[in-house]
Amino acid sequence: MQSQPVYIVTPCFNENTTLLKFLAALNPVLQSAGRQFVVIVVDDASNDATMEMLENFSFSAANVELSIITLKYNHGHQGAIYQGLLYANSLNAQQVIVMDSDGEDDPEAIPQLLDTKYDNADIINVSRGKRNEKLSFRLFYKVYKLIFYVITGSRLDYGNFCRINKKVLECTADLSFTHFAAHLSKQKVKRARIVSDRKPRLDGKSKMKLKNLIHHAFRSFVEYAEELLMVFLKLFIILAFATILVVLYIVYQKLFTDNAILGWASTLSTTLIGIAIMCLGFFVIGILLLNLMSKNNVKGREASYIVIK
């Protein structure tokens, strides 16, 4: 076995027995992986029996250690991941695997993440294969990925499930994030990718509804606020220029020719002005997103956890 343990960061909130099932499923996979592991469970200020159940749990595998931290207040899923990474960084972790604790991230993918052929990769993302959500959810997810690619130029076909090395961990701890996957997609590092099907949630009820996905999608664009800002700024400049040309055409037709001004000209100019104003509005929203991201990054660097075990 290698001397440095692999740290697994997994957030939870009011998971109850679902979390115990997930940890039990991890046990045989990690036991046979030939490495030392420290599983860091990040309790996101649960208000049910999750912590009590967790404190009474222990891995049977001798090479797996359980570490528990609880957050002082609820940070949300992404915030809980960040706090777990802060803690892992404080332990001088060299390799960290991030995965959800609801069972949708398949533990069987972990040996693949640790394959020595990926040793030179700074980030190994687990791309999502087959999904089990409703058709409406899958369709919206495809549309979202397409929009994300058009605006950012990056393909976001993976979630939180990944392995990162010390360099990426330190960068992430320093910069913070609002959307972990989008944050990783911006890193200029060596990366690799494996594919794993999404498993059904262990309790059978997915917490990620369509409304949650939309909210989650907006958070990913916050990570690309600068790029989003430039897209709408360019659109505004193009439309403003087109509007000026249309107005000049109308003035020319009115003053220097006997031609009647066609209805489409005034309609088109009005439409272009409206769209230009909308783009300017999005530009202002982009500036606000940048400001929000900056404030979140400063606030996010603060450790807000209590080590239980």
Main beta sheet, described? Answer: 8 strands, mixed
Write out the CATH superfamily name of the largest domain: Spore Coat Polysaccharide Biosynthesis Protein SpsA, Chain A
Return the CATH architecture of the largest domain.
Answer: Alpha-Beta Complex
What would the principal axes of the Cα set say about the shape? elongated
User: Which residues sit in consecutive blocks of at least 5 with pLDDT less than 50?
Assistant: none
Average pLDDT taken over every residue: 83
The helical percent reads 40-55%
Numbering strands along the chain, what is their spatial order in the largest sheet? 7-5-6-4-1-2-3-8
Distance between the termini: 24 Å
* Proportion of residues in extended strands: 15-25%
- Fold-level CATH name of the largest domain: Spore Coat Polysaccharide Biosynthesis Protein SpsA, Chain A
Count of runs of 4 or more consecutive helical residues: 10
Question: How many whole angstroms does the radius of gyration measure?
Answer: 24 Å
- Number-wise, the strands total 8
Which structural class fits the helix and strand makeup?
A: alpha/beta
Pfam families: Glycos_transf_2 (PF00535)
Protein name: Glycosyltransferase 2-like domain-containing protein
GO biological process, one term: lipopolysaccharide biosynthetic process
Keywords: Cell membrane, Glycosyltransferase, Lipopolysaccharide biosynthesis, Membrane, Transferase, Transmembrane, Transmembrane helix
